[in-house]
Write a structure and sequence with these properties.
With 304 residues, the chain is an alpha+beta fold. The chain has seven helices and 19 strands.
């Protein structure tokens, strides 16, 4: 598999010399956990056309590339992975494309997108400012916080799949809690269109500051993590259950249940993927035994 990926990469480079690419790239340098082995190749496209050409070349050979945004929701194996990765952070343009309408490329960070909306006097994205991911990942996961979520403001998405670029509108995006039609479909989100309401920039700025302060006080923002480790269960809250089970501070190797917020697993230093996975397993078991609730991971595992 590795040799075939390198062959396809060389073919892409010959016909698309403008596309930046790196072989044997360390995933640990691209994930917020700072965990992960090497991948066969990582591409850094700047346009939807470039991304489509990369993905298409691998699809023609029966290989599905992995898509990486800001790496803030990924737990990657420590082993080297013979996979091609497309990192989208260079696809980050933001445009005002109509009254109350912002079009954001998939690699734009949510924080930058929320600030862009504020500067244009548009309200509705303040909740997203402190979410550390990108627009693409936020759409795929229907990201949300503090009572807001992407489905509240999403109008349409531009998508690549199987050699075609097309638009998905409205309810066809199938957004629900931490889920969309793109979660498991293999479709790649290229850009999203958000519909927002007029607002006072200073009031929006104050709301962003208030939410940032709430996050700073309650979340381990100075620690390496992938955000909330588990999804909210059907009843109750994962963090509350974990805390009530007495698991704050529980440690496996370099991984620890945050003492500041039980919903976060952090890398205290030197944590391996297996440390985090074993800690998650112990948390799930303890919560299952105490509450009869099965916690579902929110972080995405990259492994073979």
């Amino acid at each position: 598999m590795y040799n075939r990926i390198i062959e396809i990469t060389k073919q892409i480079q010959e016909t698309n010399p403008e596309i930046k690419v790196s072989c044997d790239e360390k995933l640990s340098a691209h994930t917020s956990f700072r965990i992960g082995g090497r991948v066969a190749v990582m591409f850094f496209p700047e346009t939807a056309s470039q991304l489509a050409r990369i993905a298409g070349a691998f699809e023609e050979n029966g290989i599905q590339p992995y898509i990486l945004g800001n790496g803030t929701n990924i737990l990657a194996s420590d082993k080297d992975l013979p996979i091609p990765v497309i990192k989208t952070l260079q696809m980050c343009s933001l445009e005002l494309t109509g009254p109350g309408e912002i079009t954001a490329q998939c690699g734009a960070t949510l924080s930058r997108t929320a600030m862009f909306a504020m500067e244009k006097g548009l309200a509705g994205l303040s909740f997203a400012h402190g979410i550390p991911g990108t627009v693409g990942g936020a759409v795929v996961m229907n990201a949300g916080a503090y009572g807001g979520e992407i489905r509240d403001v999403l109008v349409s998405t531009r998508v690549y799949s199987k050699g075609k670029i097309y638009t998905v509108t409205g309810a066809d995006n199938d957004l629900s809690y931490r889920h969309s039609r793109f979660t498991d479909s293999g479709e790649i989100v290229l850009e999203a269109v958000f519909r927002l309401e007029p607002g006072d920039p200073e009031k929006i700025r104050e709301e962003i500051r208030d939410l940032a302060e709430r996050r700073r006080k309650s979340q381990p923002l100075d620690q390496r993590s992938a955000g909330s480790t588990f999804k909210r269960p059907a009843t109750g809250y994962a963090a509350a259950m974990i805390e009530q089970a007495g698991l704050k501070g529980l440690t496996v190797g370099g991984a620890q249940v945050s003492e500041k917020h039980a919903g976060f697993v952090i890398n205290r230093g030197g944590a391996t993927c297996e440390d985090v996975r074993e800690l998650m397993r112990q948390v799930q078991q303890a919560v299952r035994e105490k509450f009869g609730t099965e916690l579902e991971p929110e972080v995405k595992l990259w492994s073979l």
